[in-house]
Specification:
The complex is a heterodimer of chains A (about 100) and B (about 475).
Chain A (H helix, E strand, L loop, with lengths): L4 H10 L6 H22 L19 E2 L9 H7 L3 E2 L2 E5 L4
Antiparallel strand pairs in A: 2-3
Chain B lengths: L2 E12 L36 E2 H13 L7 E2 L2 E4 L9 E4 L9 E6 L5 E13 L3 E7 L2 E5 L6 E7 L6 H18 L11 E11 L9 E6 L2 H20 L7 E6 L4 E4 L12 E2 L6 E2 L2 H9 L5 H12 L3 H7 L3 H14 L2 H19 L10 H12 L5 H13 L4 H7 L8 H14 L1 H8 L5 H12 L6 H12 L1
Helix pairs in contact in B: 2-3, 5-6, 6-8, 7-8, 7-9, 9-10, 12-14, 12-15, 13-14, 14-15
The chains are: A mainly alpha (about 100), B alpha+beta (about 475).
């Protein structure tokens, strides 16, 4: 399976990656190579194998419904580029 | 051409746990922005989720209540998209192995008929934060208090055929969730939200038409109106030879129309994959049996019991069990007053009328169940007539004193003294010779008019049964 340039541009947009015009060709070739590897893996007969949700054969531990976290807003907002009235500020998004 | 509508509903319910789905942050409503957003909810590097056992229990509780298959092994997945109120860059949800599988709800429609509507699945997922776009000159403000709160998304089968069925389904879901006490489910506050998938097709066709999804509708009434307006829009497009685009739309209540929304992600490519930070959640039959054993009496069972124990009509029982609080209120009134039918009338008409008029909940009612029961008991023991009781009821809204004290102080006690009633009867007979003659000539129904005259004369205080009896006696 080979990818074309438009598909790579779409994937880059979804992943919020900027790929310059000059890089597009190389990235396309490299992803196509990876897909070839996946094609090879897909040719293996896995009919008798149960799908795996997690590599460890363990079961999720549960947590009691208790409040254990304290308000650390002031500390955390020191890490943020901008905040106001207790809100984190980000470039305007419209939806 | 005749068209038929196909509707599927996705309902998000905010589970009322104390802490978040994967962190120990509080979920208390109304806190200052970001004071309940810990390092986990802000997705700081190195933090890992731990699943809240109460969220699991609540989801299973819902599942067994609707007779659903319970997933003994559920798996969390990442749904990837970029939006500032989702700091991790993905929402943790359940794609292929949800906690709740196929189940069903029975809804009652306006004509009294019942319909079973299938529930495809219900999965556990986390909520996103809130974005505020208005006040920050060129910037958006982000509040992550809501990020990571537990949600149950309940997905119906596309078996709903009109707006009325959609609302009946939603109301039933709401009632069950409130009985189970797993969420406040207040649509206006966002603890219950509804996405509606609507498509139409030529009547009798087997293939589904292209659907539009109307997002985030926040009241039962708007769900109904949004469906009507969306069906009309699609019908117009198709009849003009156009075609429907699969897209997300929003409903504008002021204009009563739906409009296209820009989608969050190009082509909704969420790139799901199993969440590597969480292991599969495994429960056994014993766990399910324990949750089942703790179920409260559910609305359908309670309705059947009300019909059986209190001799109520199907309709009255349906109204009274529509909320857990109302059903509990009614049971107190019925038991304490000793007249279940009279209690049903008073609760479903007078009390509900009063609450609706002021937009009150049962908990806000100025008239407690025991007081209403006393009022009904006074009708039964002939202290007051049903009509006078309405006046007493009005007084009880603002006057907190004893029911008997109100009756006494306003001089509303029914006149049962036969001497006084005789006086009334004789006066009415004297004043209405024509009607009396008609009665004597065999026109039986005139008695109603004469009783009415007596009641008027007594300002409603005479005992109507005694008046009736005495009138007949005197006119013989």
């Amino acid at each position: 399976m080979a990818l074309d340039k438009t598909e790579v541009e779409k994937i880059a947009h979804l992943a919020r990656l900027h790929i310059s015009e000059s890089e597009t060709h190389e990235v396309t070739t490299r992803i196509t190579d990876i897909l070839a590897l996946i094609d090879q893996m897909q040719s293996v007969d896995t009919n008798a194998v149960e799908p795996l949700a997690h590599p460890l054969d363990l079961v999720q531990r549960l947590r009691a419904d208790k409040i254990t976290e304290e308000d650390q807003r002031d500390k955390l907002q020191q890490l943020a580029p901008a905040s106001e009235d207790g809100l984190y500020l980000v470039p305007k998004v419209l939806d | 051409m005749e068209w038929e509508t196909v509707i599927g509903l996705e309902v998000h319910v905010s589970l009322s746990t104390k802490s978040k789905l994967f962190s120990g942050s509080s979920t208390e409503f109304g806190a200052q922005p970001n004071t309940q957003a810990s390092i986990f909810d802000c997705a700081l590097p190195g933090t890992l989720p731990v699943f809240n056992e109460e969220a699991l229990r609540m989801a299973v509780r819902f599942g067994v209540a609707i007779g659903a298959e319970i997933g003994k092994r559920s798996v969390f997945d990442r749904k990837n998209y970029f939006y500032p109120d989702l700091p991790k860059g993905y929402q943790v949800t359940q794609l292929d192995f949800p906690t709740v599988g196929k189940g069903a709800l029975t809804v009652t429609l306006a004509d009294g008929s019942e319909k079973i509507i299938g529930v495809t699945r219900a999965h556990i997922e986390e909520n996103a934060g809130k974005s505020l776009h208005e006040e920050f000159s060129g910037m958006s403000g982000i509040d992550l208090n809501r990020a990571g709160e537990p949600l149950l998304e309940i997905v119906s089968e596309p078996e709903i055929t009109c707006a009325e069925e959609a609302v009946a389904y939603l109301k039933k879901l709401h009632t069950i969730i409130r009985y189970l006490d797993i969420s406040d489910a207040i649509m206006a506050q966002g603890s219950m939200r509804c996405d509606v998938n609507v498509s139409i097709r030529p009547k009798g066709a087997t293939e589904l038409g292209t659907r539009a999804e109307i997002k985030n509708i926040n009241s039962f009434r708007f769900v109904e109106k949004a469906i009507h307006s969306e069906v009309a829009r699609q019908q117009e497009i198709l009849e003009d030879g156009g075609r429907i685009i699969q897209e997300t739309r929003r409903y504008n209540a002021d204009k009563d129309e739906t409009s296209s929304m820009r989608s969050k992600e190009v082509a909704n490519d969420y790139r799901y994959f199993p969440e590597p930070d969480l292991l599969p959640v495994v429960i056994d039959d014993e766990y399910i049996a324990a949750v089942t054993a703790q179920l409260p009496e559910l609305p359908d069972a309670r309705k059947a019991r009300f019909i059986e124990d209190y001799s109520l009509s199907n309709y009255d029982a349906g109204v009274l069990v529509s909320s857990r609080e109302l059903a509990e209120y009614y049971e107190i009134v019925a038991t304490a007053s000793g007249d279940s039918k009279l209690a049903a009338n008073w609760v479903s008409q007078d009390l509900l009328g009063l609450l609706n008029k002021h937009n009150w909940e049962i908990a806000d009612s100025p008239i407690q169940a025991v007081r209403l029961a006393t009022l009904i008991a006074r009708i039964k023991d002939n202290t007051i007539s049903g009509k006078i009781a309405k006046t007493v009821f009005e007084s009880m809204i603002s006057d907190e004193s004893d029911v008997d004290a109100i009756i006494e102080s306003k001089g509303l006690k029914q006149v049962t003294d036969s001497g006084e009633i005789e006086k009334l009867v004789l006066e009415v007979i004297e004043k209405n010779p024509a009607q009396v003659q008609q009665y004597k000539d065999g026109k039986e129904q005139v008695i109603g008019f004469l009783v009415g005259q007596c009641m008027q004369l007594s300002k409603g205080k005479a005992n109507p049964a005694q008046v009736n009896e005495l009138l007949r006696e005197k006119m013989q």
